[in-house]
Write a structure and sequence with these properties.
With 362 residues, the protein is α/β, with parallel strands linked by helices. It has two domains: 59 residues, Orthogonal Bundle (DNA polymerase, domain 1), CATH 1.10.150.530; 293 residues, Aldolase class I (TIM Barrel, Alpha-Beta Barrel), CATH 3.20.20.70. The protein has twelve helices and 14 strands. Strands 3-4-5-6-9-10-11-12-13-14 form a ten-stranded mixed beta sheet, covered by helices on one side. Strand 13, helix 11 and strand 14 form a beta-alpha-beta unit. The longest helix has 16 residues. The radius of gyration is 21 Å and the shape is globular. It binds S-adenosyl-L-homocysteine. The site of S-adenosyl-L-homocysteine has 16 residues, from strand 10 and strand 12.
Length: 362
């Protein structure tokens, strides 16, 4: 979205208030402008009749409403939709809409590629190009909202589980999730907007100061040895430090916050009953739900899907141990839209893709 003007979608409510106050206007102009845009769908300043002609002129000069461009759309036989969305200079990210049981869950990307290189995730193998702006994140929700509008439906849940590590793009992700939860914008409840993280511990403490957004932690292993192998970030922020941050996030005044542990089941690696036992012990004083994700294979990976029998045994063990444990079904596999299959188009600046391809071919 190259433009020398400000993009309205980069502003959450407090940033917009600061903009108006900073340019000599009153704070409540922010509320008026947001209502025009998000509630009434007016995307031209001309039509905003309760703003003065002068102010409309200033806005038209300084601001645009720019959503990222959709390059391609794929429709799965199970109703899942994947959009390939162009961000800047030729990079693309992917956004996935999953309709299920009356809910419309949108899986949103936060970065072009990812720096974390989790061993079982294909996004990391693409390398990394950069962070998405707030507008590029919120723009993904606008794209899905517009598509659902045609069917008289809306986006009911957002999970920041697409490409990238949301908490390494902290400021933009925070503003974007503020807009998703703001009644003046998308108005989705805080229980239905989730930031998923591989465990950027300092950012979890920062979040606790400013938001009640739901948190999902990509845990995937009950011990540091195994977790460091799967999620290299664990070497920097080991399990104990991560769980301390999680307990902090859901403690005290914030008892309405929701916390989920994500656990991708990899056959023979972390999916056996001894892993479930260790996991149940590890989490015993953390107020959380557990989400099991059967591994989705991608070309070049050596990991395998877990057997259905092992998956069921794992789930049953966790439930008997007292954890609400959901099994995530794979959706949109025919359009490569499942967890860990999102690759977009990344002009890799880390050369990781090159190194990875050399290794796979060797
Ligand atoms: N960086 C964020 C968002 C990543 S994707 C995070 O780590 O949480 C969301 C979830 O999908 C994460 O739990 C991730 O570990 C998981 N995942 C990645 N690749 C996968 C694959 N191939 N199969 C199943 N789950 C996968």
């Amino acid at each position: 979205m190259p433009t020398d003007r400000l993009n309205f979608l980069d502003f959450d409510r407090s940033a917009l208030e600061a903009y108006f106050i900073g340019s000599g206007h009153q704070r409540f102009r922010a509320e008026q402008l947001m209502k025009w845009f998000y509630h009434r769908g007016i995307r031209a300043f001309d039509g905003m009749s309760d703003l003065s002609v002068n102010l409309r002129g200033q806005l038209a000069e300084q601001m645009v409403f720019a959503t990222p461009e959709v390059v391609e759309r794929f429709d799965s036989t199970d109703g899942t939709i994947k959009w390939v969305v162009r961000v800047d200079n030729g990079n693309c990210v992917e956004t996935v809409l999953i309709p299920e049981n009356g809910r419309n869950t949108l899986c949103v990307s936060s970065q072009v590629g990812c720096t974390l290189d989790c061993s079982f995730c294909s996004t990391g193998k693409q390398g990394f190009n950069g962070n998405l702006s707030t507008a590029e994140i919120v723009g993904q929700v606008m794209i899905a909202k517009d598509a659902l509008n045609e069917r008289g439906q809306s986006v009911t849940n957002v999970v920041m589980m697409g490409m990238g590590e949301p908490l390494l793009n902290y400021e933009n992700v925070l503003k974007a999730t503020n807009l998703m939860m703001d009644d003046l914008a998308f108005g989705i409840s805080k229980r239905r907007v989730t930031i998923s993280t591989a465990g950027v511990v300092p950012a979890i403490y920062k979040l606790a100061e400013v938001t009640d957004v739901s948190l999902a932690i990509s845990l995937h292993a009950p011990t540091n040895d195994l977790r460091s192998e799967l999620v290299p970030l664990n070497r920097k922020y080991p399990i104990e430090a991560l769980l301390d941050a999680c307990r902090h996030y859901v403690s005290g005044l914030s008892d309405k916050r929701s916390l989920t542990m994500e656990y991708t089941l990899l056959a023979g690696v972390n999916d056996q009953i001894e892993h479930a036992r260790a996991l149940a012990t590890l989490l015993r004083d953390v107020r959380c739900k557990v989400n099991l994700i059967p591994f989705n294979p991608w070309p070049g990976t050596t990991y395998r899907k877990p057997a259905l029998k092992d998956t069921r045994l794992f789930q049953t063990y966790m439930m008997n141990a007292g954890y609400a444990t959901m099994l995530r079904t794979t959706r949109g596999a025919d359009i490569d839209a499942a967890c860990g299959q999102l690759v977009g188009r990344v002009n890799d600046r880390t050369r990781r893709r090159e190194r990875y391809l050399a290794r796979v071919k060797a």
